Amino acid sequence: MPDEQATLTEPAPKKIIATELAKSQxxxxxxxxxxxxxxxxxxxxxxxxLMTTIKEAVDNSLDACEEAGVLPEIHVEIIDMxxxxxxxxxxxxxxxxxxKQLGKIFGKLLYGSKFHxxxxxxxxxxxxxxxxxxYAQLTTGRPAKITSRIDKSEPVNYVELTxxxxxxxxxxxxxxxxxxxxxxxxxxxxxxxxxxxxGVQSIDQYLKQTAIVNPHVTIIYTNPKAEQIIFPRATDVxxxxxxxxxxxxxxxxxxxxxxxxxxxxxxxxxxxxxxxxSRVGNNTAKEICENARLLPNTKPNAVTRxxxxxxxxxxxxxxxxxxSSDCIEPIGEELLEKGMRKExxxxxxxxxxxxxxxxxxxxxxxxxxxxxxxxxxxxxxVTLLRFANRVPLLFQQGxxxxxxxxxSTSWKSYGLQQSSGSVPIGPCSVLIHIASVxxxxxxxSKEAIAHYPEIIKEIKLALQECGRKLGSYxxxxxxxxxxxxxxxxxxxxxPHVSEALKxxxxxxxxxxxxxxxxxxxxxxxxxxxxxxVEFDPAKNEEYDENFAVNQKKKKxxxxxxxxxxxxxxxxx
Length: 572
Known about the structure:
Layout: H1 2-9, H2 18-23, H3 30-36, H4 46-68, E1 73-80, E2 85-92, H5 99-107, H6 128-140, E3 144-149, E4 156-164, E5 169-178, E6 185-193, H7 203-213, E7 218-222, E8 228-231, H8 254-263, H9 269-276, H10 282-292, H11 305-317, H12 333-343, E9 348-353, E10 357-359, E11 362-372, E12 383-388, E13 391-392, H13 401-407, E14 428-436, H14 453-505, H15 509-525, E15 529-530, E16 533-534, H16 545-571
Helix pairs in contact: 4-6, 7-12, 9-10, 10-11, 13-14, 14-15, 14-16
C-alpha cells in the first residue's frame, strides 16, 4: 500500500512542446556531415585513407593535364614521418590553377566544374581532393600546402589552408609568392594518418594499373622506403578530348523535366526540346508534342505537372536516336594492348572495344583486354583489373558489376578452369574498363559499379569476344604441343629406322646418312599441319575454323539463355 500511494503522488512528467523541439533542430553542413561520416568517402581505415588520398590527387592531375592538352608527368612522393603519419606530395605539369580558385578547389566540398557537364571525366562530384584536405586536417591538425603556376610569365602562388566544417568554406592561413622551377603545374602537400602496405590493394598496384590504362602518362613514384619506381609512357599520343553533350530525352525523369521547364530561357515548348536536349531536331520535337497532345508553342513555364507527365509519355512514344558518343573517349584496342604489354609479362594479348550503348539516357562504352601466360600463376584465380573512366577500382570487388559479369561468363569454353559461381582460374589477367559521362558508382567513394542490366550485358559481350580469341590461341597452342611431342618420338627413332633399312636394303654408310636426311626432310614437310589445318605459331591471331563454328553455336546458346534469364528477372 505505501508503494502504491507513493506512486500516485509522483508529479506528472513535463510535456515537451513543439516550440522547444524546434529549438534543438539545426541545419547540417555538408562538410560537417562528411567529417563525421568520412567512411563514405573512402577514409574508413588508415591504409585505405592513404591510398584514397593518392588516388584523388593523381586523378585531378590527369584530368587537368588532359584538359590542357599536356602530356602528363606526375611525381608522387610518400614520406614516412613515424607514428602512422605520412606526408603525401603530388606534383604535376598541368595548366595550374588561378590564385582566387585555389581556396575553393582544395577547401570546399561539392565545388567543381564536372558535376553539371555530361562529359567523360575522372572526377564527378567535386568532393575528392577537398575531402583529402579535410581528412588530413582532422587526423593531424595540419593545413594543406598548395603551390601553383599558370604560366612561366606569371608568379608562383603558394597557400596554406584548412576547411571550415561549419560553413564548408576555406580558411586561408598563409599566402605568398615563392620560387619554383616549373613553368606551369600544381603541387599539393598533405600530412595525414595512414598505413602503407604492399599487395593487391596498395598504392604501388594503383599506380601500376593507372599506367596500364593511361599509356600516355609518366609517373615517377617514391615510396615510404625511399625507393623510386618509374612508370614510363608507352605513347606520345594524347587521348582525344571528349566533348560535352546535353541530356538525352530518354534519360530525364519527371521531377528533373519540370525543373528544366521552369528554368529554361526559351519561349516555346518546341524550342525548349530542341535546345535543351541532344538528338532532338524540329521534326522530332513536333512529333513529341503531337504524341503528348501539347501545342508546340506552349510556354515552358506554363507547363503544369499533369502536362509534364504527358510530355514524358510523348517522349517515350517517340523514336529518338541514341546519344552521341563524342562525349566519351575510350582507350582503344591498340593502346589497351600496349598498356598490358608494358606492365604484364605474358605470351598472348588481346583487347576489344564495344560500340556505344545507353543506360538511363547516359552513353557508355565497355572495353576488355586479356593477358595470358608468362609468369602469371596458373593455379590461382585470374587477376581482375577493374577501371572506370581510366581510374583503377581496387576495393569492393565483390559488389561490382564487372565481377558479376566475369563470374556469369562461361570460361571453360575458352580454356580456363571455372567452378560454378566463381572467378575462373588460370595464368591470366582480365581487364574491364567502362567509360561514361556518369559512371553509376554504388557509393561516394567510387569503388564499385552498380548492377545495371545494360552495363552487365555489354561487359559480358566484351569478355566473350576476348574469350573466343583466347580459346583459339589455347587450342592451337595445345595442338602444337601435341605435334612437337609426336615429332620428338619420331625423331628419336629415325636412326633406328635407317639402321634397319640399311640391313634390309644392303646400303652403305653414305646411303644410310642420306636416308636419315631424307626422313628428317619428310618429317619437316608436315610441320605446322595438323588435321589438314595450317598453323603458324607466330600468328596467334589466326582463327581456327572449327573452333569458330563451335563458338558461334555457343554464342547463340548463350544469347538464348541470357534472354530467357532476363525475362525471368522481369517476371520477378
